[in-house]
Design a protein that fits this description.
Largest interface: A-B, 19 and 19 residues
Largest sheet of chain A: 7 strands, mixed
Strand content of chain A: over 45%
Mean pLDDT of chain A: 90
Oligomer: heterodimer
Radius of gyration of chain A: 13 Å
Shape of chain A: globular
Number of strands of chain A: 11
Largest sheet of chain B: 6 strands, mixed
Low-confidence stretches of chain A: none
Radius of gyration of chain B: 13 Å
Structural class of chain B: mainly beta
Distance between the termini of chain A: 37 Å
Helix content of chain B: under 10%
Chain lengths: ~120, ~110
């Protein structure tokens, strides 16, 4: 299967700071990447869909000014949590769609964010 | 509305067989996925069904009936490492993935 990396895997930051998370497709070009958030013992929640070279499409209830997404190339998408607050503490997971294998989404390992 | 139903939790014994069911009602259908998610980790892809029938992949098999809006994931020769959540997801007519809440599978020795 296709490989997706995510960096960093852990972030601890102070309230009010911004945090950038990178998502890379290592062995394929991903025209579409997805950002999810998952709170403990809850299901995945799609935050936004990111297409290379265009603005991300955000799900209802997700603040686009708070969660900035940049899909700069076919192998890299970034999520920046601006002015993070304790309630933003969560598990953030990206996924990428590999065109050569149809619509299958492959997930990065996730980034655990803790805002103090 | 769009809806994916799967049991919240199941328990099975090491070495046994378990079947995790998933029923769906979505606006259109472009395939059904099963993912495995261990606690604290991201999901990993298990299977994709778009046509009716059974797809076998080692100890894991996935079945789809589009007319019934139904799928199941069959796990054979259960191992302790199979303890995880199993997520059912359907690709709708807009190629959006609709996720089930996941089934937590507990394997007992």
């Amino acid at each position: 299967g296709a490989v997706v990396s995510q960096h960093p895997s852990w972030v601890i930051c102070k309230s009010g700071t911004s945090v950038k998370i990178e998502c890379r497709s290592l062995d394929f070009q991903a025209t579409t990447m997805f950002w999810y958030r998952q709170f403990p013992k809850q299901s995945l929640m799609l935050m936004a869909t990111s297409n290379e070279g265009s603005k991300a499409t955000y799900e209802q209830g997700v603040e686009k000014d708070k969660f900035l997404i940049n899909h700069a190339s076919l192998t890299l998408s970034t999520l920046t949590v601006t002015s993070a607050h304790p309630e933003d503490s969560s598990f953030y997971i990206c996924s990428a769609r590999s065109g050569r294998e149809g619509e299958t989404q492959y997930f990065g390992p996730g980034t655990r964010l803790l805002v103090l | 509305g769009q809806n994916i139903d799967q049991p919240t939790e199941m328990t099975a014994t090491e070495g046994a067989i378990v079947q995790i069911n998933c029923t769906y009602q979505t606006s259109g259908f472009n395939g059904l996925f099963w993912y495995q998610q261990h606690a604290g980790e991201a999901p990993t892809f298990l299977s994709y069904n778009v046509l009716d029938g059974l797809e076998e992949k080692g100890r894991f098999s996935s079945f789809l009936s589009r007319s019934k809006g139904y799928s199941y994931l069959l796990l054979k020769e259960l191992q302790m490492k199979d303890s995880a959540s199993y997520l059912c997801a359907v690709l709708d007519s807009n190629y959006q993935l609709i996720w089930g809440a996941g089934t937590k599978l507990i394997i007992k020795p």
